[in-house]
Amino acid sequence: MTLWAGFASTVFIPLIQFLLDHFGWRETLLVLGGVNIVLCGGLYAAVIDPAADASPQAVDQPGSRPMVGARAVGWALKSPIFWALAIALTAYWIVFSAFIFHAYPLLLERGFDTQTVVFAMAVIGPAQVVGRIAIWVFASGVQIRVIGSLVVLAFPLVFLGLMVTPPVFPAVALIVATYGAANGIMTIVRGLVVPEMLTRDAYGAINGALAVPTMVAKAAAPFGAALLWAASGSYVSVLIAMLGGSLLLVVAFWASAFLVTHRDSTASIP
User: Fold this and answer.
1) Number of H helices, E strands in the chain
2) CATH fold of 71-267, please?
3) Whose CA, among 90, 91, 95, 195, lies 20 to 30 Å from 21?
4) Residues of CATH 1.20.1250.20 domain(s) within the chain?
5) How far apart are CA 27 and CA 32, in angstroms?
6) Are 86 and 194 in contact (CB under 8 A)?
7) How far apart are CA 109 and CA 39, in angstroms?
8) What are the helix (H) ranges across 200-268?
9) How many CB atoms lie within 10 A of CB 129?
10) What is the sign, positive or negative, of the torsion defined by CA atoms of 191, 204, 88, 92?
11) What pTM value is reported for the model?
């Protein structure tokens, strides 16, 4: 589902632009709301059976009970790996959310025409799917911390590229395709860092604890980017801030990977 859902966020951008050009933003929002209520809501109501989600009662096995709930979160909060991952994922969501909500006006300000921007942004979704397929085919046995340590390098390169690239379609298409592929791979990385780098116990509880700062960052980043643009009068300052956030992502994720490697090597010493 994650693989093919990569198309969802951008595959309809040309259609949305058509609606904006011919009907206006209010009518476009009404159409999109109708799609969510009638099509998505109707399909969910028709095919999802809540009773099918009920899990069988777990059988207690003395001496092998896993950490659960608050106990697991308390344990995670004492781990420097957890905090390095929290910083990395929060930085990721700041960069992702600020860029995705400001990409359209940002690229227009950088000199790209509307058609180029629309089609370039439409590349992001398919690129996410390509990135996920590449991981599935070529790196299925590679440790997730290795994959993550490599893919985070793409984000500062993307923002550096946006600062210097000429306003032509091939250049911006390559940049946003790189961004899309990296984001698609990060979706897989985010889902696997907890069981590989922390613990297989209490997956939902620990992921929930990690999600608290990341969701706040995701919600606040577009507003913060808008304030920065309004204060400076240019997206150059926003790009610099995004570059700084992406570098923080690199440093924090590398730190978490180093801590895991050190922990595992120490544990293996008799």
Assistant:
1) 13, 0
2) Growth Hormone; Chain: A; (1.20.1250)
3) 95
4) 71-267
5) 9
6) no
7) 35
8) 203-232, 236-267
9) 19
10) positive
11) 0.78
Kindly give the confidence (pLDDT) of every residue in the chain, 270 residues in length, as a single tens digit, with 9 standing for 90 and above: 655 665 666 667 777 878 888 888 889 889 988 988 888 888 888 887 766 655 455 444 444 566 777 888 888 899 999 999 999 999 999 999 999 899 989 999 988 888 888 888 888 888 888 888 888 888 878 899 999 999 999 999 999 999 988 888 888 889 999 999 999 899 889 889 999 998 888 888 898 899 899 999 999 999 999 999 999 999 999 999 999 999 999 999 999 999 998 888 776 555
Using an 8 Å Cβ cutoff, are 162 and 175 in contact?
Answer: yes
* 264 vs 214: CA distance, rounded Å: 27
Q: What is the DSSP string of 57-102?
A: PPPP-TT-PPP-HHHHHHHHHT-HHHHHHHHHHHHHHHHHHHHHHH
* φ, ψ at 144 (rounded to 5°): -65, -30
Give the amino acid at 145: R
State both tokens at 43.
């399909």
CB 145 within 8 A of CB 201: no
DSSP label at 50? G
Sequence-separated (6 or more) residues with CB below 8 Å from residue 261:
145
